[in-house]
Amino acid sequence: MTAYADFHRRSIEDRDGFWGEQAQLIDWHKPFDQVCDYSNPPFARWFAGGETNLCHNAVDRHLATRADQNALIFVSTETNTEKAYSYRELHAEVQRMAAIYQSLGVRKGDRVLIYMPMIAEAAFAMLACVRIGAIHSVVFGGFASHSLASRIDDAQPTVIVSADAGMRGGKSVPYKHLLDEAINLARHKPAKVLMVNRGLADFARVEGRDVDYATLREQNLDAVVPCEWVESTHPSYILYTSGTTGKPKGVQRDTAGYTVALAASMKHIYLGNPGETYFSTSDIGWVVGHSYIIYGPLINGMATIMYEGLPIRPDAGIWWSLVEKYKVTVMFSAPTAARVLKKQDPAFLTKYDLSSLKALFLAGEPLDEPTATWIGGALNKPIIDNYWQTETGWPIMAICNGVEKAPTKFGSPGKAVYGYDVKLIDETTGEEITEANKKGVIAVNGPLPPGCLQTVWGDDKRYVSTYWSSIHNKVMYSTFDWGVKDEDGYFFILGRTDDVINVAGHRLGTREIEESISSHPNVAEVAVVGVADQLKGQVAVAFAVLKDPSKVAGPDDAKALEAEIMKVVDGQLGAVARPASVRFVSVLPKTRSGKVLRRAIQAVCEGRDAGDLTTMEDPAALAQIKDLVS
Ligand code: AMP
């Protein structure tokens, strides 16, 4: 047995011994009584009885040894700002933010919704929440008012932190009017809105509700706000993710399990050492941003780079110039970013001294072989794919080079990570597939390891019914991904089993987009599918049936209506969810029982065989789509 196989085996067979050891990587205020309380499956209570604090582990505990070391390096190529905060400075800023929260009435367990661009204040806002035991819910800045409103209603925040605007490609992207609109739409109203004013866009202020961050910060410069010790299982945050229904699910994370899982992953997977610099190019609105821009690197005593801007502006050398300047040792990005760079002159990638960099980790979507080969060759560094989900918070599959060096295989995110008892399951029988290279649903035996979702916020039933009830005859966690495993234990991911699509590493539910398109007055019915795309991995393509087709007499009308529909999606969900095209059809392909055949539509769009269509209601419907896309 290899050293890694043994490590993994022990993490499953001697679960408590294994994680009890990993738990020593963090600070505890009160030791736990039990490593894993799994008396009420599938709900796991990791490190039950213990007390700790995420902010203490990310910030305060480093003050004794690395107060003057960089902690957070904020770089914006949009506003030409670069500012490094040492651990001491970060500690002070977080306490100021925490004091502001307290003055606004935020208490332990209250929610704070953060709707912000990639600026340092967003990091302060997150850390300050967990410092006082408040629960943050970061909403990606690219989402618009409807998406935001549904999250406000679900999380019911006491306070919302926002900013006047983000910037993208040199243009300001105003936030405040979207936020005001969202609060108007939402049933729940926050008591206060804390505004960071960057001076990028004018905005209206609501008397008595909106308060100014800079003013309050001035009043709290010397704030001392100790960390609130919370129970291990106290929720640290909620992060919404798309599923198969229009209503996003609030992934709820605990405190201690998450802290331990991230600390261990830095050691075993990412090979980041304290004092070094970690650069993740994600956004705080996504899970990678939570785990590997903010918490993971800081828990590990590293400096972390928070970057606002595009990978190719001012030119495609920008990220690599930061690697040189800050001696980045670990970098984390998404395959889409690599594909964007691939269109640029590769000379930009070698213009800088990259000797500090140990590896580039890519995750969030399938990594295709040409992209992996290209970027690996251009950088002359190992490219390490890893597979995980918002729900898990850290990798399910990876190469754990920190345990034992192992080769990568093209197209594979590696082996099951320690702590995850991953199985491939036959969809129809529910039996485990043990044969190599045979396709199955990727599922995990409970308990999920520390750091994974505790439940769906406010909806334990939905947690069980969504994640633990779809495998035939078994109570197992389903990833809703297809996969195969080869003879050496390497997995290959073959796409989703549900209606979730992945656009440029961003997960979107086709149902959400369909609901938005359906709100257009002339749309009777719509199907949205994910179609393979060279740059973004997948794009959303919509097929709509109109209530009044006479309004679309020719191609110009169709173009105008398509633009109108895209505007509806932009306004409600955000440009991130905008379909690449909207086509109009007289009927959607459905089964005789009325189910839209999304997979058949997708296959036709991708020029593949549409599969078994014996249950199809009207074969002409698919032919119509074939004609439109060919
Ligand atoms: P998210 O929750 O947004 O991180 O999306 C998770 C989904 O993205 C997974 O269920 C997969 O479908 C996909 N995904 C994430 N990482 C990878 C990867 N390395 N290879 C293939 N698919 C991935």
The CATH topology of the largest domain: Rossmann fold
- Helical residue percent band: 25-40%
Q: Strand order across the biggest sheet?
A: 5-4-17-16-18-19-20
| Low-confidence sequence ranges | none
The biggest beta sheet is recorded as: 7 strands, mixed
Associated small molecules: adenosine monophosphate
Overall structural class, as computed from helix and strand content, comes to alpha/beta
How much is the radius of gyration in Å? 24 Å
Number of DSSP E strands: 32
Give an overview in words.
The chain is α/β, with parallel strands linked by helices and 630 residues long. The protein folds into 2 domains: 4-309 and 386-479, ANL, N-terminal domain (Rossmann fold, 3-Layer(aba) Sandwich), CATH 3.40.50.12780; 499-629, 2-Layer Sandwich (GMP Synthetase, Chain A, domain 3), CATH 3.30.300.30. It contains 20 helices and 32 strands. The strands form 10 sheets. Strands 5-4-17-16-18-19-20 form a 7-stranded mixed sheet, sandwiched between helices. A 5-stranded parallel sheet has the order 7-6-8-11-12. It starts with a helix and ends with a helix. The model has no long low-confidence stretch (mean pLDDT 95). The structure holds adenosine monophosphate. The site of adenosine monophosphate (AMP) has 20 residues, from strand 20, strand 26 and strand 27.
Brief overview, please?
This protein is an alpha/beta fold and 630 residues long. The chain folds into 2 domains: 4-309 and 386-479, Rossmann fold (3-Layer(aba) Sandwich), CATH 3.40.50; 499-629, ANL, C-terminal domain (GMP Synthetase, Chain A, domain 3, 2-Layer Sandwich), CATH 3.30.300.30. 31% of the residues lie in helices and 26% in strands.
